[in-house]
Specification:
Rossmann fold; about 260 residues; alpha/beta
Length: about 260
């Protein structure tokens, strides 16, 4: 199964992605966690120390490697670059035997066309989504850019994280509409940071559909972030982790 986790910045995508990846791996699934957000916080959320996390290689920081796979000597670029060895070359083993790959950010300096980089990114995502049997969890960049470029095309399930604010709701409603354009097979809403039932009702009122899972507001999430520690390691029995375990069980029922 290939799962993309999306939503407005700051709604909790990375924490949910990290916990899901490790919990699924504990259930003996081969899990690849993809940090497709340029902020690159997924490594720490997965349980790597800050020093190691920042030193770990990010794919698009290796400009020479990208050039070698996308550019021809005559200046033309390759539309279908070789990507089937990228996980083995750039993958990082993290707690619970999850494989992490950090995309990093496509460099935008100067006025050069970025077509080779985006061709590489599309080919890599296509390989991850269509060419591998692993469970792949993509922590997508905040906002809508990946949707407008069709980078999430072909995934099995899009989990859209929303908190009880109008700004977050406006973003996820746009994502929901765009998901139809790229034929997302299944789109589900995750309500996060819920303090009281009225928060949940507020979200349902605006999205006008059911919520797949509700994750309560949890101070342990804030404390783990402040310490730079994985929530799963810091507070494995916290309310948020328990809710993500329920989410995992629902995903397993879909997988099976």
């Amino acid at each position: 199964m290939k799962i993309a986790i999306v939503g407005k910045g700051g709604v909790g995508k990375t924490t949910i992605a990290a916990c899901l990846a490790r919990l699924l791996s504990r259930d003996k699934y081969n899990v690849i966690a993809v940090d497709a957000d340029p902020s690159l916080n997924l490594a720490i959320a997965l349980g790597i120390s800050r020093d190691i996390a920042y030193k770990a290689p990010a794919l698009f920081d290796d400009e020479e490697f990208i050039r070698s796979r996308t550019l021809l000597p005559n200046g033309l670029y390759i539309m279908n670059p070789k990507v089937d060895d990228v996980i083995e070359r750039f993958g990082i083993k993290v707690p619970d035997n999850v494989t992490l790959i950090k995309f990093g950010e496509v460099k935008r300096g100067g006025t050069r066309c970025l077509c080779p980089e985006y061709a590489f990114l599309r080919a890599l995502l296509s390989h991850l989504i269509l060419g591998r049997k692993d469970v792949v969890i993509l922590d997508m960049v905040a906002g809508l850019e990946h949707m407008s470029r069709g980078a999430a095309k072909g995934i099995d399930l899009m989990l859209c994280v929303v908190e009880p604010t109008i700004k977050a709701i406006d973003v996820v409603l746009q994502m929901y509409r765009l998901s139809k354009d790229i034929n997302i097979k299944r789109f589900e809403f995750i309500a996060n940071k819920i303090r009281k039932e009225s928060d949940n009702e507020f979200i349902k009122k605006h999205i006008k559909t059911s919520i797949f899972e509700v994750i309560p507001y949890d101070e342990a999430v804030i404390e783990a972030d402040e310490l730079g520690i994985s929530l799963l390691d810091y507070a494995p029995n916290s309310p948020a982790v328990k809710a993500i375990e329920r989410l995992k069980s629902k995903l397993l029922s879909i997988i099976k």
